[in-house]
Write a structure and sequence with these properties.
The complex is a heterodimer. By secondary structure, chain A is of the alpha/beta class. In chain A, the strands form 4 sheets. Chain A has a 7-stranded mixed beta sheet with strand order 2-8-7-6-5-3-4, with helices on both faces. Chain A has a 3-stranded antiparallel beta sheet with strand order 9-10-14. In chain A, strands 1-11 form a two-stranded parallel ribbon. By secondary structure, chain B is α+β, with helices and mostly antiparallel strands. Chain B contains 8 helices and 16 strands. In chain B, the strands form 4 sheets. Chain B has a 6-stranded antiparallel β-barrel with strand order 11-14-13-12-15-16. A 4-stranded mixed beta sheet of chain B has the order 8-7-10-9. Chain B is globular, with a radius of gyration of 21 Å. Chain B starts with a helix and ends with a strand. Classes of the chains: A alpha/beta, B alpha+beta. Chains A and B meet through helix 10 and strand 13 of A and helix 2, strand 2 and helix 4 of B.
Chain lengths: 373, 351
C-alpha cells in the first residue's frame, strides 16, 4: 500500500475527466478550426468546455484562453501583458518559477513576504507606482500553501499603479478556493488542469475584457489571436469536466481534507521532537502540510519514505530531479539548514485516512533513524 | 553514477552479482548547461542506465559541501602558489565522505563507484587498495586518502576489467553510455576556458617576475597564481636553454626558474599523510610492528606524483619521501602516492 501525498505536484485524473476525454482520442478527432462536420463537432465541444471553464472561473467565455498548461498561462500573462504595455513588473518572492523566471527576465522587482509567507503589503505598496504595468501575486503557494490577500492587493494596485494589470497564478488554489470570487479583482488568472483531476498539458488563462495582451506563441491565430496552435480538444474537454466536478465538491472536499491535514500535521508535530510547521495554518489551503525537522536532510528522508510507500516532496523539484534549496522558504526567512530539512506533504481529493495513518506511522521513525547516525 | 560508462557497468555488475543496488548521481556543481559534469544530460544518462539495469536512481545535491570542501580550497591553494588536485579532495570529502555517510544512514552496506581500482581482503583483517587491472586506466592514485574504515565499505566492480572490457560489456548489455568518451580531469574547469577563466572571478591574479636562482629577472608571467612548479612554457624567458619553474611565491610575485638539473631533487616533504592500511617507514614494505606487509610481495616502496605515473623507487622517512634517483620536483599541492607493487600504501600532499 502506498500513500500519495504529493498532490501539489499533480493529482490523479478524475473519472469524469477521463470519460470526457476518451472520445476525442478516438472517433471525435476533428480539428475545431476546420470547415466540415467533424470539425464542427470538435468546435462545439470546445465552445461548451470554454463556457464551463468561464463559469467556474467567474469569467466570460470570450475571456478564457486555453494554453498548454499552467506554466504557459503564467508566461503568457506576464510576458504577454508586458509586451503589450512595456513598463515595470512587480512580483512576490514566493511566486512559482513560471512567474518568477518570466518576471525576472523582464527586469521585474521582487516584493518580499513576511515570515508566514504572506506578501508584505506595506513593502508592496512602496513598489507600486504609475510606471508599473504588470503586477503578479499568486493566490495560493505551491510549497507552503499560503493564501495571499488578493482583494487587498488589487485595491493597492488600483490606488497606486492604476495603469497596471494584476495577474494571479491560481494553479494551486483552484482545488481549494472559490477562484471566481477570490480572483475577482484580478485582470489575469492562470490555472492548470492536472492540479485538480484534469490531464497534464492543458491550462487556461482568464484575460478580462479590455486587458491588452500580446501572444507569446505565434501561428494560426487560434484563441482570438492570443494563443496559436491546434486546440488540445480532448485535454480541454477533460479539464472542463474536472473543473465542474471540483467546483461541485469543493466545499465538502476542503472540509474533509482539511481535517485529515490537521490530524497529519498535529500528529507529526506531536510525535517528532524538534519539528515545526511552516507558516500559519489558518492562512493555508486545506491540502498543504509543510513541516521542517531539525537536523534531517530532506533528500534522505524522501528516500526512506519512498521505500515505505509514502510519496512526498521537498523543496521544488528541478530538471535533474535533484532537490534545490527552496526560494520560497528562503524568502520567508528560514535558514538554509532548516529549509534543507523541510518536507511537503500535499493532500488531495483522493487522500484517505489510511494514507494519513501510513504517513503518521512512517515519518517519525524515519526522522529518528536519520538523526541517530 | 556519473552518467559515464564505468559507473554504468559497475552498477550492472553489482545487480548481476545479486546485490540490492540503488543508483545515485551527485549534483556537485550548478551546471545549467546541457553537457559536462552534473549537467541534466549526464544525470539523464545515469537515470536511463539505472532504468536499463532495473534499479532506483536518486540525485543527491552536495553543492554546498563541494564548494566548501573542494572548490574553495582549490582556489585558495592556487592563490597561495600551490597546484592542488581537487579530485582527491572530492573523493575524500564527497564521494567517500558525505555520500558514504548518507548511504549508511539509509541502511546501505557499501558504496560502489566506477573507479579503476581494486580492494582485496588480505585475510588478516585488513582491506588492501590495489591498482586497477588496466594499468593505463588505473585510478588508484586519487583514492589513496581512503582508510580502512572507508575501504571496508567500498566496491570497485570494474577494477578487475580493462577499459575495453568495460566498453564491450556495456555494449553487450546495450547500455546507452557504452560509447561515451572518457571524462575530463577536473569536472568544474572547462576544457575551453581552462584554469585561468575559472579562477579569475574567484581569486586575484597578479603578474609576476621570473628570476633565476641568482635573483636576476629573466622573464614575466601574467599570473603567478597559475604557474606550476616544473612548468616550462609561458615563463617568458626567451632564448637560452630551457627554464623550468622551481618555486612560486605569490607574496612577492616571484617565480624562480632554473634548468633541468636544478629542477631535479632527491626528496619531497609531505603533509596530510594518509595511510590505507597503516603507516609505512623505510624503503621496503615488510611485515613488522610498524607496518603491514604489502600483499604483492614486491616490498620495494615506490612514489608516484601524478595520476598515471611513473612510480619510482623511494624510501619513506617520516613525512619525507626520498627518491632512489633524483626526480623532477613535485609541484607543492600535488599528491605523492606511495605504492608497493600494485598496492596503494598511502600518500600525502607535497609541501
Amino acid at each position: 500500500m502506498a500513500a500519495y501525498l504529493d498532490n501539489a505536484a499533480t493529482t490523479p485524473m478524475r473519472p469524469e475527466a477521463v470519460e470526457a476525454m476518451l472520445p476525442f482520442l478516438g472517433e471525435r478527432f476533428g480539428n475545431p478550426s476546420g470547415a466540415h462536420a467533424l470539425a464542427r463537432e470538435a468546435r462545439k465541444a470546445l465552445d461548451e468546455a470554454r463556457e464551463m471553464v468561464a463559469g467556474c472561473l467567474g469569467a466570460e467565455p470570450g475571456e478564457v484562453v486555453f494554453t498548454g498548461g499552467g506554466t504557459e498561462a503564467d508566461n503568457l500573462a506576464v510576458t504577454g501583458a508586458h509586451s503589450a504595455r512595456p513598463g515595470g513588473v512587480v512580483y512576490t518572492a514566493v511566486e512559482h518559477h513560471a512567474v518568477l523566471h518570466a518576471a525576472a527576465a523582464l527586469g521585474g522587482t521582487v516584493a518580499p513576504v513576511r515570515a508566514d509567507g504572506v506578501v508584505d503589503l506595506d513593502r508592496l505598496a512602496g513598489l507600486l507606482a504609475p510606471g508599473i504595468t504588470v503586477v503578479s501575486v499568486m493566490l495560493a503557494n505551491n510549497e507552503v500553501g499560503t493564501i495571499q490577500p488578493l482583494d487587498r492587493v488589487a485595491a493597492l494596485v488600483r490606488d497606486r499603479a492604476p495603469g497596471a494589470v494584476l495577474h494571479t497564478d491560481a494553479v494551486q488554489a483552484f482545488q481549494w478556493l472559490d477562484v471566481a470570487t477570490a480572483a475577482a479583482g484580478c485582470d489575469l488568472v492562470a490555472v492548470s488542469g492536472h492540479k485538480f483531476g484534469g490531464p497534464k498539458g492543458v491550462g487556461a488563462l482568464v484575460v478580462r475584457a479590455g486587458v491588452a495582451l500580446r501572444p507569446i506563441i505565434h501561428g494560426g491565430g487560434q484563441e482570438r489571436d492570443r494563443r496559436s496552435g491546434t486546440h488540445n480538444v480532448g485535454g480541454i474537454v477533460a479539464m472542463a469536466a474536472a473543473m465542474r466536478a471540483t467546483v461541485a465538491e469543493r466545499a465538502e472536499v476542503g472540509r474533509r481534507v482539511g481535517a485529515l491535514r490537521d490530524r497529519l500535521a498535529d500528529g507529526l508535530l506531536a510525535a517528532v521532537p524538534d519539528s515545526a510547521e511552516t507558516g500559519d495554518r489558518r492562512l493555508k489551503i486545506a491540502g498543504n502540510c509543510h513541516l521542517s525537522f531539525a537536523g534531517v536532510e530532506a533528500e534522505s528522508l524522501l528516500m526512506l519514505l519512498d521505500a515505505a510507500g509514502v510519496y512526498a516532496s521537498a523543496g521544488s523539484a528541478c530538471a535533474s530531479g535533484a532537490v534545490d534549496p527552496s526560494h520560497v522558504l528562503t524568502a520567508m526567512g528560514m535558514s538554509r539548514l532548516q529549509a534543507a530539512g523541510s518536507l511537503r506533504l500535499s493532500l488531495g481529493r483522493t487522500t484517505s485516512e489510511a494514507d494519513v495513518e501510513l504517513a503518521l506511522a512512517t515519518i517519525p521513525p524515519a526522522v529518528a533513524r536519520l538523526r541517530a547516525l | 553514477m556519473s552518467g559515464g560508462v564505468d559507473s554504468s557497468v559497475a552498477a550492472a555488475l553489482l545487480v548481476e552479482q545479486g546485490h540490492h543496488v540503488s543508483g545515485v548521481t551527485l549534483r556537485l556543481w550548478d551546471n545549467t548547461g546541457d553537457s559536462g559534469c552534473c549537467s541534466v544530460a549526464e544525470i539523464d544518462d545515469a537515470r536511463r542506465v539505472a532504468d536499463q539495469v532495473g534499479i532506483d536512481h536518486w540525485v543527491w545535491t552536495f553543492a554546498e559541501e563541494f564548494e566548501a570542501r573542494v572548490v574553495a580550497p582549490y582556489a585558495a591553494a592556487h592563490a597561495g602558489g600551490l597546484t592542488p588536485n581537487p579530485c582527491i579532495e572530492c573523493n575524500r570529502h564527497l564521494k567517500f565522505g558525505r555520500l558514504l555517510q548518507r548511504a549508511r544512514q539509509l541502511g546501505f552496506d557499501a558504496v560502489a563507484t566506477g573507479h579503476h581500482a581494486r580492494v582485496r581482503d588480505d585475510g588478516a583483517g585488513r582491506v588492501r587498495l590495489l591498482r586497477g587491472a588496466d594499468r593505463a586506466k588505473d585510478q588508484s592514485y586519487v583514492l589513496y586518502v581512503l582508510g580502512q574504515d572507508t575501504l571496508s565499505r567500498c566496491l570497485f566492480p570494474v577494477g578487475e576489467m580493462t577499459k575495453d572490457e568495460v566498453r564491450s560489456r556495456a555494449a553487450a548489455m546495450a547500455l546507452r553510455t557504452a560509447a561515451k568518451p572518457d571524462s575530463q580531469d577536473v569536472c568544474f574547469v572547462t576544457t575551453g576556458g581552462g584554469r585561468a577563466s575559472f579562477l579569475a572571478p574567484r581569486i586575484d591574479l597578479h603578474p609576476g617576475r621570473v628570476v633565476d636562482t641568482a635573483g636576476a629577472t629573466i622573464g614575466r608571467v601574467d599570473a603567478v597564481e597559475l604557474v606550476t612548479v616544473g612548468q616550462r612554457k609561458g615563463l617568458g624567458t626567451g632564448g637560452g636553454g630551457a627554464r623550468y619553474a622551481l618555486s612560486v611565491d605569490p607574496a612577492t610575485g616571484t617565480v624562480v626558474a632554473g634548468d633541468l638539473g636544478e629542477l631535479h631533487t632527491d626528496r619531497v616533504e609531505l603533509g596530510e599523510l594518509a595511510w590505507t592500511a597503516g603507516p609505512v617507514e623505510g624503503p621496503a614494505c615488510v611485515a613488522g610492528t610498524h607496518q603491514p606487509a604489502c600483499v604483492a610481495g614486491t616490498h620495494q616502496v615506490q612514489a608516484q606524483s601524478s595520476a598515471h605515473g611513473p612510480a619510482v623507487d623511494a624510501t619513506v622517512e617520516g613525512a619525507t619521501v626520498r627518491f632512489a634517483r633524483p626526480q623532477r620536483r613535485v609541484a607543492p599541492g600535488q599528491s605523492v602516492v606511495l605504492y608497493c607493487g600494485d598496492e596503494v600504501l598511502g600518500g600525502g600532499i607535497a609541501r
